[in-house]
Amino acid sequence: MNIVTATYTVAEKKGHPVMSSQDAYELLKPLFNPLQEEFYLLPVVGNECVAEKLFIGGLGAANVDFRVIFHKLLTQYPNCSSFLMAHNHPSGVLEPSNEDRFLTKQIKKAAELLGYHFLDHIIFANTGYHSFTDQGELLVRKEV
Asked: Going from the N-terminus, what domains does the chain have, and what CATH number goes with each?
């Protein structure tokens, strides 16, 4: 019989204070690559987060596997209970695509099942950003 084991370690990465979507955008803006779409996971521990690039695509899309997102959270950020996700639109168009909206709904469902607070999905470009939470498109769970 094969036994699968997992090792959980706390990431020793320096975080940045993030209290709003504007803070997250300021963290992401220097990372903007105008030649390819990139997807970032931003795990939050306390009031700080790290922007970690998980997926890279072409000019129009990046394939995102939400299982990888939660594997990363569980194995490298075990003290994290909240996270954001973000990706850029090299075109500069900030309006979410249908695929962006579908992915956001799937991530939200998975986060709720696993007990995470999915705080926001941010689409950013050199012209600004779109926050699903700021636009009322992603309601954050309230603790009772």
From this structure: 16-131 (3.40.140.10)
